[in-house]
Amino acid sequence: MREAALRVEPRDEDEVAPAPPAPVRPRVAADSPKSLRTRARILDAAMRLLAEVGYAQANNGIVAEAAGLTRGAMLYHFPTREALVEAAIAYIQAQRARLFQAAAAAAPGGADRTDHAIDSYWRLLREPAFVAFAELECAARTDPMVRERLAPAQDAFDRAQVGEGLFNLVQAGDGPRFQASRDLARFMLEGLSRARLADDADGRTERLLAVVKRAARMLNRKGSGADLWPEG
Questions:
Q1: What's the pTM?
Q2: Which domain covers residue 106, as residue numbers?
Q3: What 3 state SS string does 59-79 have?
Q4: Would 42 be classed as within a structural domain?
Q5: What is the sign, positive or negative, of the torsion defined by CA atoms of 33, 37, 43, 44?
Q6: Which of 44, 73, 149, 197 could covalently link to 201 via disulfide, CB atoms 3.0 to 4.6 Å apart?
Q7: How many domains is the chain built from?
Q8: Span 76-130, pLDDT tens digits
Q9: Does 135 fall in a domain?
Q10: Which of 202, 224, 206, 204 is nearest to 214 (CA)?
Q11: How many CB atoms lie within 10 A of CB 45?
Q12: Which of 165, 72, 48, 77 shows the shortest CA–CA distance to 117?
């Protein structure tokens, strides 16, 4: 009787709650040769779609279709758009660096390589990697996720490629004047590449490129003010 009196029946609030389920982690594709090839195919498709149709349209489903993959296969490699964007930025950045280094390696000998540097960068700006990166920069203006992930790539490219690479292409000196020469060429060309010249586009582009070359030579102390817009 005494034992029965001491026994207390458990109340609902005293019952032990079941352990919460473990959080579901996105599956990460193994780095097998086949997996790496598939990832490269996805990222190449993403880069080209960014250049062709823009950031808003280049979602995971469209990229999967362009890469010839099912949605399930796409989710295996990139479960979210954020994961795809982050990997695409690194892939595009590597492609830009490779193209830039190839252009620098092809620079002719001699003391003045300004014209070659400007022509080379102008051609690069129309490559899919550069067009895709410019599209991401436009998206970053209003998309915090893109802006956060793109910023390190922008900084790295500004220092390593356009800073040192264009320095080697132009063979200019060091200091604010010569930096201004490189910045003038870079930002004029980048702005021109994003412009839409409706009337006499080829002629206006050719004249602008000629002026950029003359201005760069002037800042590099290889020309006079009269050379900027010669009469005739």
A1: 0.75
A2: 81-225
A3: CHHHHHHHHCCCHHHHHHHCC
A4: no
A5: positive
A6: 197
A7: 1
A8: 999 999 999 999 999 999 999 888 888 877 877 665 677 888 888 899 999 999 9
A9: yes
A10: 224
A11: 20
A12: 165
